[in-house]
């Protein structure tokens, strides 16, 4: 059985359309399937629409989170509730074309445990988003020792083995793309062009994306913490050499008082570096703090199961 995992947050404009297209593709596969919707604290009628559809034979369930926990938490909830041998993670806004599910299932049949959608053409995203995303993938892959394919989104098919592996990861910081990369398993890419949103608005602004990127980097590498050791070592060596130079010069030529510029430069430069490195430590301490609270990743408010109808069970 295929579990189609769909996080939804205020998607009333597009959800009907999504169900129509995805339903058609799923019927074509001939496989048994269920939907796992995660209502991430929507304030519109998304939940009502889905509840109604579930009551009318749409197979699966709707998990209502108690508030908006973010897409990453919603996906974790969805993975936990999925019962299938295969999970397909897909956005509700039709930016992840459901037709690709066919190729994903072919890939799975060929023995791949992960078949991910690869966005080859991101022209539907703004130039700013594309270039910042590109930079993020570069930095992430340079710093961390897990390999994250650039421009792969959350849209993917994963085998039950991968779902179980993901569920074993205890961290609260659910940076899914990183977790997917971390668990590994034989993976295959299915390239596609990412169309613009069918309806409704994007839910991520740049501030959210920046914090998302920080979560990703701090969650998967300690390099930003450790690089200050090397930076500090380099500066110490230079300072030591400079001190020797100044001492010798002082002995030979006597002491000259003017030195305002060099002192100012040194003070400003090093206080800057120190603040930066303290801030970096702060980023990690924040995350340690959050992890150590051991709060659940999400809270369920209710679960609505589909009412079995003649064709589905
Ligand atoms: N989403 C969610 N919780 C959030 C934000 C988004 O569950 O806090 C869902 C949203 O309903 C959609 C998917 O995550 O199904 C992707 O959201 P969006 O299209 O806004 O992201 P983008 O395509 O810009 O990456
Ligand atoms: Mg989208």
From TrEMBL:
It comes from the Bacteria. CDD domains: DPM1_like_bac. Keywords: Cell membrane, Glycosyltransferase, Membrane, Transferase, Transmembrane, Transmembrane helix. Belongs to the glycosyltransferase 2 family. GtrB subfamily. The keyword Glycosyltransferase applies. It is a multi-pass membrane protein. Residues 3-166 form the Glycosyltransferase 2-like domain. One of its GO terms (molecular function) is glycosyltransferase activity. The chain crosses the membrane at residues 227-248, 260-285. The keyword Glycosyltransferase applies. This is Glycosyltransferase involved in cell wall biogenesis. It comes from Roseibium alexandrii (strain DSM 17067 / NCIMB 14079 / DFL-11). Its main location: membrane. Pfam families: Glycos_transf_2. One of its GO terms (cellular component) is plasma membrane. It is found in: Cell membrane. The lineage of its organism: Bacteria, Pseudomonadati, Pseudomonadota, Alphaproteobacteria, Hyphomicrobiales.
């Amino acid at each position: 059985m295929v579990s189609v995992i769909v996080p939804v947050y205020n998607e009333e404009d597009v959800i009907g359309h999504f169900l129509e297209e995805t339903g058609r593709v799923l019927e074509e596969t001939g496989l048994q399937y269920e939907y796992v919707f995660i209502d991430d604290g929507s304030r519109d009628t998304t939940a009502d629409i889905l509840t109604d559809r579930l009551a009318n034979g749409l197979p699966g369930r709707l998990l209502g989170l108690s508030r908006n926990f973010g897409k990453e938490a919603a996906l974790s909830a969805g993975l936990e509730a999925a019962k299938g041998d295969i999970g397909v993670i897909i956005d509700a806004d039709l930016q992840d074309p459901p037709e690709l599910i066919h190729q994903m299932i072919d890939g799975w049949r060929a023995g791949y445990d992960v078949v991910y959608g690869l966005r080859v053409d991101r022209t539907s995203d703004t130039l700013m988003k594309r270039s910042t995303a590109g930079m993020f993938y570069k930095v992430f892959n340079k710093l961390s020792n897990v390999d994250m394919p650039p421009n792969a989104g959350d849209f993917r098919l994963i085998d039950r083995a991968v779902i179980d592996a993901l569920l074993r990861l205890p961290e609260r910081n659910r940076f899914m793309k990183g977790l997917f990369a971390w668990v590994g398993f034989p993976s295959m890419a299915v390239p596609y062009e990412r169309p613009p949103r069918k309806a409704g608005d994007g839910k991520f602004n740049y501030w959210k994306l920046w914090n998302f990127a920080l979560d990703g980097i701090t969650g998967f590498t300690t390099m930003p913490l450790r690089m200050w050791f090397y930076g500090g070592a380099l500066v110490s060596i230079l300072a030591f050499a400079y001190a020797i130079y100044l001492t010798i010069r002082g002995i030979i030529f006597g002491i000259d008082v003017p030195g305002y510029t060099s002192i100012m430069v040194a003070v400003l430069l090093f206080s800057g570096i120190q603040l930066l490195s303290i801030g970096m430590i702060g980023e990690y301490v924040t995350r340690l703090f959050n992890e150590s609270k051991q709060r659940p990743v999400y809270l369920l408010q209710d679960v609505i199961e589909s009412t079995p109808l003649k064709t589905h069970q």
